[in-house]
Amino acid sequence: MNNKIVRYFEDVVSGMSVEFGRYLMSEEEIVAFARAYDPQPFHVSREAARNSVVGELIASGWHTCAVAMRMIVDHFYPAESALASPGVDEIRWLIPVRPGDELSVRLTVVDARESRSKPDRGILRIRTEVFNQRHETVLTFISTNFMRKRPTSM
Amino acid sequence: MNNKIVRYFEDVVSGMSVEFGRYLMSEEEIVAFARAYDPQPFHVSREAARNSVVGELIASGWHTCAVAMRMIVDHFYPAESALASPGVDEIRWLIPVRPGDELSVRLTVVDARESRSKPDRGILRIRTEVFNQRHETVLTFISTNFMRKRPTSM
């Protein structure tokens, strides 16, 4: 996929905000993710969830993060310049995600600056908001990301 | 599984620290997770990774978080009292996780206090450290967790 919003660090402008993605959270996928990675009663089946402390089936918060990442990789991170991230701050799961919810992302570049120690890259601070189909915010987090600069002609 | 370290909020002591888990990160699982949720070149195949900005196949950071969660649910969160978490802070991916790495967890209760607004539960702040087989720290984060108090006889 090469129709990304940016290609290199120089294309990123502090303050830019983009919305993208559409991801249906099926009951099958919610349950499959939970059985593998977060087998709490309120994530693994409708029946176990009904009898649990939460009372209904909701997606694992880590699953919602993973789905947000999928949309970000599909639409924003350029394969030729996005490097591994050193960290994420302030993950907030604000509203439960339920089977049938359709998620989308708004990504806002909070800060974009050149790396002092590694001149081939820039450092981004990105705020991610994840919405459901009613445009309620279900998840927010702030990530740090490294992105390569445009290669100079050598 | 009912051999958990704690059952209710009252069993949790601020400062307690427990180590548990053993999770082999196979190449198959690293690639499967990445194809679903984080299809960057350095996560999806050895070949794509070799030609990528990172140069080798490493696990998605979200995958490592999910695996940590699996170990925490298996060994620590009591099914009868652990409620959904409102958030996680300061995720730091310190060292790449590679195929064949075996991960384990140390969990430290940083703070345990009663909820003022909801008297049926307590609020925990928990520091999670994830180690590889050389006991290098690959990931750390701090979570907020709600846990029910022991039911009183009614």
Care to describe what's here?
Two copies of one chain form a homodimer. The first copy, chain A, is built from four helices and five strands. Chain A is α+β, with helices and mostly antiparallel strands and 154 residues long. Chain A has one domain: Thiol Ester Dehydrase, Chain A (Roll), CATH 3.10.129. The first copy, chain A, has a five-stranded antiparallel beta sheet, covered by helices on one side. In chain A, strand 4 and strand 5 form a beta hairpin. Chain A is elongated, with a radius of gyration of 18 Å. Chain A starts with 16 loop residues before the first strand and ends in a 6-residue tail after the last strand. Chains A and B meet through helix 1, helix 4 and strand 2 of A and helix 1, helix 4 and strand 2 of B. Strand 2 of chain A pairs antiparallel with strand 2 of chain B, so a sheet runs across the interface.
Structural key phrases:
homodimer, alpha+beta, 4 helices, elongated
Quick summary:
With 154 residues, chain A is α+β, with helices and mostly antiparallel strands. Chain A has helices at residues 27-37, 41-44, 46-50, 61-75, and strands at 17-24, 87-93, 102-114, 121-131, 137-148.
List the helices and strands and how they pair.
The structure is a homodimer of 154-residue chains.
Chain A: E1 17-24, H1 27-37, H2 41-44, H3 46-50, H4 61-75, E2 87-93, E3 102-114, E4 121-131, E5 137-148
Antiparallel strand pairs in A: 1-3, 2-5, 3-4, 4-5
